Amino acid sequence: MQERQQLAQLNRMRGIATGLLVLMAVLFVVSRLLRARHPAFVIVGAFAEAAMVGALADWFAVTALFRHPLGLPIPHTAIIPRNKERIGESIASFLEHNFLTRQVVGEELAQVDFAGAAARWLARDGNARAIAGQVAAALPALLRLVEDEQAARFMRSALSGAMKDVKFAPLLAQVLAVLVAGGQHHVLLERILGIVARALEENRPYIRQKVHENSPRWLPKAVDEKFFERLMEGVQAILGEIQGADSEWRARFHSATEELIANLATSPEYEEKLQGLVGHSLGHPLFRGYAGQVWRDVKQRLLADATAADSRLAGGAEQALRVFSRALSDDAAIRGKLNVWIRAVLVDTVVERRDVIVAVVRRAIGNWDADTVARKFELHVGKDLQYIRINGTLVGGLVGLALHAVSRFL
What we know:
By secondary structure, the chain is mostly helical. It has helices at 2-34, 40-66, 79-82, 84-98, 102-109, 114-123, 127-145, 148-164, 168-181, 184-202, 204-214, 221-242, 248-266, 268-282, 285-306, 312-330, 332-352, 354-367, 370-409. The two termini are 58 Å apart. Among the domains are: 2-82 and 371-409, no CATH class; 169-266, no CATH class. The protein is rod-shaped.
């Protein structure tokens, strides 16, 4: 479509320039035939003659850029077709060093509000929903591309890598310090003792059996039963005493907890032990199997949700996009920071890849044949070059008049 418009404009201007040349030729012939009748025709003839010379000279110059004039292989004509490779190299080099520079690209991109445009686009009806739907629709295919064992291995590797830099002992010390500050360690102690007391009570028959099995055979059964009852009463009494608010056991537990917190916060030995314990746990077959099962469960849930008509994933993605759009629209500081980041990425990408862009230009021009190159250049600049022919005709005529006037006075 664009080439048809350019060709129509070129043909129109070419017709005007050629028509002016024909007009000068007609004036020249008429002036030659009528100059004996009136001296004015001599002046018209001088103008027309010089105008034809100028028009023909400029026609030759313009035509010689794109083809051989009249099809004659005159030296130094058809300049563009003969120098196709050199022209392609020059255009590519000019583009690389004058347009694809960091300064030029940065100045152009500085005028573009990428974040604002994205926010306005997402705010339009249906756009956020369309993106969320595309994400949900593409998710099943992406999930099926991932093998379960690879995903589980990645999860284990990522978790192990994340845990490697974590200092567990100081972290545990902080958690325990928070519990101690709120008295929660005593609550924890009471719950543990309550669990132990209930476990003893619920397992009285089993404990009685073990006591009888380990008692001497000669010991009377009544004595053995009495020993068991006293043992259970003593244990329960100790557990009750520990739970007392002013218990010495509680004070010892508090001191031991504070000592443990201090050791966790300062002792490299504790950190080393905890690291070893975590590393051993992560490498245990039970954990490996658990990671695989977690991935399979997550995958099945995602697949089921993505294919559902009321997908929560799509709804959540749409809501997130709308929130993101409003945040961008309302916060100029965020837009500014995001624009700076986008521009920096685009500038780096364009400048670092400009050799690829330039190579595309070189290959494109190199793949064109000579006639195609000449035609494309002529379509783009040929219309303007016809003005050279028109100006050459008029200027040539004026020069002819000037020379005629000079010759008359000499």
